[in-house]
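re: that complex we talked abt at group meeting.

here r the seqs, copy pasted straight from the sheet so there may be weird spacing, ignore it
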Amino acid sequence: MALGKKKPTFKAKASAWLASHNALACAGVGAGVAVALFGLFLFVVFSGFGSSADFIYNQF
Amino acid sequence: MDTRLLHTRLIALVIGVVVAACAIVGVALAYPQQAESDPATDYGYVYSGVKSASVPFVEASMTDESLLMFGSSEFSTPASIVPQVPAAVFGGNDYGLRPMLIGEAYDQSLWHAIALGAYAQAGVPRDKVVIIVGPGWFVDGGMDAETFQTRFSYALYAGFCANGAIPDDVKAYVRDRLLSLGIDETQVQASAGSMPQDVLNAAVFGAIDDLKARQGLAEVRSQGMPLVDDAAAGVPDFAAMREQAIADGEAMSTTNDWGVEDGFNTKRLEPALADAEGSRTDETYSDTPEYDDLACFLDIADACGIEVLVVIGPVMGPYYDLIGITADTREGCYDRIRTLAAEYANVQVADFSDREYEKHFLYDIVHFGTVGWTDVNEAVYAFAMQG
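got the structure back, here u go
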């Protein structure tokens, strides 16, 4: 039985592709970090999550 | 991964952080500072939690004629329903008194104690404040933790902690109460702690709180009313105002014998009556930390050299008789407040607890009506103008 050449995994192929397109990978890392941090900031400050509601006093 | 690739991607990550930081700074700069306030506009009557928790904005919006009034949902009553609210009387005329209303629904003694500490740190006009209390604050069990957590203001607590005039035991009491009500210990510690992580947390919490306040104040600024500046207005004629208040009260209450505003009677009171009778016979107004919280408020005023007028508002006698909270039980609550206030040399009381059965004193079952606000305004005016 002849041994065939082992097929590279997706991860290996992706790593190789990113290594050969390093500028694109760096742009992705930078943009991803910036979007994540800015998105987190917008959520914390502007979503109103955890802030008080406009209470109507229940006098009954 | 090879080292060169690792380095370039690390640099990309740092650049991403820097870009995000620049965007955040850009957003932050888009909002005016909290202390920005139009001197030709009166923000004293804007009913807002954001305003109430922003010491820089309130301080910038006050003058020597201002008077801090701490209260809760009664401040939400619009002049369209009760034309005698402070916004109409003192906001519409220059009587040399400009109330600055602090608080909204569910802000009670503990919240106000913290706020007073923060405002006293920044400066209180006339060295006087008013606080409006009523039996609604003193229900058994006290305020539930979940509600208080939504009212807690980190900025006010930080200001409170920074006030060196407040005794350590009072600060310890407030701290324990906050923790017992489920306020995050990290926030409590950040305001008062001295460890490096506390300083870092304080910077982060403070920055987030500042930006939220600046965002919220945009709406507050849009709700201010033109500042009336007319020295000829002189002294308010409360006797004439009371006559008008009785007439207004009768005009707004034509379809019920309770003396409440017709809209409230139709939409709220009548539907509630079916299940009302005897529904609260177990209320005692005694099993609550609210009295200690009120004492804490008065302790802070005393320590900071501030005179206090405690306004005791009544509830509507006939309705409370119906639900089974007896006149004796209610009197027990009023009496504890009076007794507590009497322990302080710097505290005066405007006691309206004997007005429970007077029509038009309230416009619903707990909030001042046409006559009620007229008499409260007169008491507040007299207190403000003393010595």
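couple things i noticed - Chain B has a mean pLDDT of 95. Residues 3-30 of chain B form the longest helix (28 residues).
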